[in-house]
Design brief:
Blueprint (H helix, E strand, L loop, with lengths): L2 E4 L3 H9 L5 E3 L11 H19 L3 E11 L2 E3 L5 H11 L3 E11 L4 E12 L4 H9 L20 E5 L2 H5 L3 H11 L9
Parallel strand pairs: 1-2, 1-3
Antiparallel strand pairs: 3-4, 3-5, 5-6, 6-7
Length: 189
Amino acid sequence: MEIYIVTKSEARKNLLKNIGFRFRTAEVDFDEKILNDPVKTIKYNSLGKHGEASKIYDGIVVTFDTVIYHRDTVIGKPRNRDEARNILIKLSGETHKVYTGVVVGDRRKRYFGYGETEVKFIDIPKDLLEWYLDREEYWRYAAGYRIQGYASIFIEYVKGDFFNVIGVPIQILFNLLNRYGVNPLKYLD
């Protein structure tokens, strides 16, 4: 049975390829929402994407959603440079949590799980922030950053699953595949 990784994120695809995971890539359009709670948000979005994808793809469908939670606020992807700047200024010198939801299943059954990781940023100097924004890496990423990209220079520490911050909590994905009834080892080269 084919596994379809439904994501527009190259980082997610590359991470799974780097561990030798065999899958087909797929994409769907879904209007993501930001709700008041990070877990409700990622559950709504990842289940919604799964609902759309499972109508199209016949096999095991895997969808994801990642948000940031800081001071009782759920943060998604910035719409522009100014919004990215404002988000990163708020995160500067602070800790925040990264939540990634995963759904594994097909048209008949599906399972949801999520990862939670704490990230601490340094106090980001204004010139470093503008240097970062000039690289335009903030597009398409929760809170406007990729931990494995230019924003790695903002990271003081990570507490928890590093891969969750990239957008693939691997152990949760494997646990959900097992729960679905598929041994993930069969999909590893």
